[in-house]
Amino acid sequence: MQLRQLSLRPFRNFARIDLEFAEGGAVIVGANGRGKSNILEAICYQSIGKSIRGARDHEAVPHGEGHFDIRGDWQQGQRRHPCRVFYGADDGKRVFLDEAPLPRVSDLVSHFQTVYFAPQDVALVLQFSAQRRRLLDIVLSQADAVYLKALQTYQRLLTQRNHFLRSLGHRGVDPTEREVWDAQLAKPGALLRHHRLLGLVEIMPDFARQYDVFSTGQETAGLLYADEVIESNPDEIPTRDQLEATFRQQLRDGFEKERHAGHTLNGPHRDGFVFTIDGEAADAFGSQGQQKSVLLSWKMAELRLLERRKGQQPLLLLDDVFSELDPIRSAHLIEMVEDFDQVILTAPRQPQESLGDRYARIDLE
Amino acid sequence: MGPEPLEDLVVAFTRLPGIGRKTAQRLALYVLKSPPQEAESLAAAVRAARENIGHCTRCFHLTERGQELCHICRDPRRDTGMICVVEEASDALALERSELMRGTYHVLGGALSPLDGVGPEDLRIAELVERVREEGIREVILAHNASAEGEATAEYIHQRLDGMTQVSRLARGLPAGSDLDLADRTTLAHALQGRVQF
User: Fold this and answer.
1) B119-153: per-residue pLDDT in tens?
2) Is residue B173 within 8 Å of residue B185, measured between CB atoms?
């Protein structure tokens, strides 16, 4: 799968720009502030329907404008698929695939998979638990539309249950109603946990192998989910029914505490997800270099997961990797992505590394 | 911004569900352009509906003022052993269009939604339980919306009626007259789970 054209009119700092991408990919060269990252962000909009940097839609509207408009032309085999993400201050966000409007923005997700890596964000991404869960949610939503659907239902029910808990301050507990909100929340909650465990177990071997390549030391990288070490054995994952029963029990046990807190303290929205180096949390104990290797290895493993699940290679987006990674890691990276379908890189100047001729150079004036 | 009375009318239309500012303006201008008696009869119809329509004391469906029971509860041909539970009167109207519902209705007046301050006591659930107990109901059909709140409400009622009567829910699946390849995954999953013997 490749992105062949991208038109922004407007988007962030671009009033109007039309880009063509070669099959193998491109290196976008431009000084800082020219909007290299904005182009990658726009591409991600076509893939996940929202900002990969977690920005709100209106922030991507240029000053003095009322909308942004991103049009892409994607190639899958012999077929071209035009895709458009439009946001207007008045009408909100709308998406079009093959010229036809999609009923929901979320319907776009899982059509065009992307993997985005920006080493300058590494500390931010690894430091916060919510950011790490977001990483997981984005890749699993791209891998399976059912996951995204469950995530949305879960968030809706979570809001309802939290309001229910808060309403108990001024009325008695109706035990049946309590049971109902627990039961409703547990269904999508168990699905999310199940998909996360399955996904992590599948990612784990690739992640560990990639880390061996990128790390300069002898240490081993690992993953922890909800305090459990992720092993690469899918047979040990509880079934969805078991997870649902466990979650229900957690909600029952934590009820008094949650009633006091006024919100739900247990569930996939709070589950810890941690990268480890030799068993220690990478965000607390790892060096900058180790953290970059961790995130890079994770991204490479994401690529493999999406490739297996969707039967096509995702588009890889690498934001300013040469300034942030040392020459050895950069060289490994370039070698590793040699056999990927399409890679789009950004750099402040022509990279010193020999990239080969697959990357057509695009200069931002 | 037009003259103030026009603005008032536009704002009044904007408050109606599904009407945005642009449509409201169009409707308001239409009212102004039409003959005075047409505008007059619209105002009269709004007032009359408001004044003369109340709620059925049994099922809470809409009824003419002065009539304790709605036309469905008064209809002797209706099967009184069967209650179809809906969130709003509009859902009962939709089911009536099918001309297949032979039982009576029970209009809850919404769905559970703590977010909007709606708990079980704000819906006509106690009244439903009372009806099931008093009227010898054989079957309760839950015809809720396929939203998170609709599901929660159905589950709540199911638990409250547990052991009192047979409770069923509407099947979920493919819409009539639509193409299979256009159906989304959730709809297809429900359709597969709810498949019936040929």
Assistant:
1) 999 999 999 999 999 998 999 999 999 899 999 99
2) no
Residue range A86-106, pLDDT digits in tens: 999 888 999 999 999 998 999
Asked if the Cβ–Cβ distance from B119 to A153 is below 8 Å, we say: no
> pLDDT per residue over A256-298, tens digit each?
999 999 999 999 999 999 999 999 999 888 888 889 899 999 9
Q: How many CA atoms lie within 13 A of B111 on its CB side?
A: 21
Domain match, A138 and A109 both: no
Range of the domain at A53: 1-113+313-365
Give the side-chain half-sphere CA count within 13 A for A296: 29
A288: Cβ–Cβ under 8 A, 6 or more apart, which residues?
A122, A123
Cβ of B114 and A183 within 8 Å? no
Based on the number of CB atoms within 10 Å of its own CB, is A56 exposed (0-12), middle (13-18) or buried (19 or more)? exposed
| Separation in Å, CA A343 to CA A40, A68, A252 | 11, 25, 48
Q: Which helix (H) or strand (E) holds A315?
A: strand A315-318
- Which residues make beta-bridge pairs with B106? B85
> A144 is written with which tokens?
């399976």
Q: What are phi and psi of B24, to 5 degrees?
A: -60, -40
Q: How far apart are CA A251 and CA A254, in angstroms?
A: 5
Residues of A in contact with B120 (CB under 8 A): 174, 176-177
Structure tokens at A286: 């790892």
Q: Which chain A residues have a beta carbon less than 8 Å from that of B148?
A: 153, 156-157, 160, 184
Total domains, chain A: 2
Does one domain contain both A89 and A129? no
Same domain, A173 and A294: yes
Name the residue in chain B with its Cα closest to that of A178. B156
In sequence order, which ranges of chain A are alpha helices (DSSP H)? Answer: 36-48, 122-127, 129-143, 145-167, 175-214, 240-253, 255-261, 282-285, 288-310, 321-324, 327-336
Query: Which domains does chain B show, CATH number per domain?
Result: 4-52 (1.10.8.420), 79-169 (3.40.1360.10)
Radius of gyration, CA atoms only, chain B:
21
Instruction: Note whether A83 and A59 are same-domain residues.
Output: yes
Count helices and strands (H / E) in chain B. Answer: 8, 6
Q: What are phi and psi of A52, to 5 degrees?
A: -70, -25
Give the number of other CB atoms < 10 A from CB of residue B179. 8
Q: What is the CATH number of the domain that holds A359?
A: 3.40.50.300
Would residue B18 be called left, alpha or beta, if left means φ above 0 and alpha means ψ between -120 and 50 degrees?
Answer: left
CB A320, CB A119: distance < 8 Å: yes
DSSP B109: S
Does A304 lie in the same domain as A210?
A: yes
- Reported ipTM: the value is 0.81
Q: Distance between alpha carbon A286 and the CA centroid of its chain, in Å? A: 22
